[in-house]
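tool_call predict_complex ligand=zinc ion
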Amino acid sequence: MGHKVDFVCRACRYEERDLGVGRGRRPWPVLRLFRCDNCHSVGSAWVDEDGVARCSLCYHDDIALLADDITSVTCPKCTERGVFTHHPGETWE
Ligand SMILES: [Zn+2]
Ligand SMILES: [Zn+2]
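tool_result ok
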């Protein structure tokens, strides 16, 4: 099962809540966190076995995939540090 993640940047108040990460019932595809420098957003996207991932917002295919347990990343909007809050108790499948 995967879990839920919130992203919040205190500097510019950009936030993305209720992002999913991890595996569901099937081994593939998996939900991965990403940062897209094309549309300047953070989100979660389905990644298939072949590793091709697209931004779920602008469909750009050159996104930076982030580790499933990442705790902070450079905010795509303002370049300050944004924080991920993981909710291991909030699962999806
Ligand atoms: Zn994008
Ligand atoms: Zn920011």
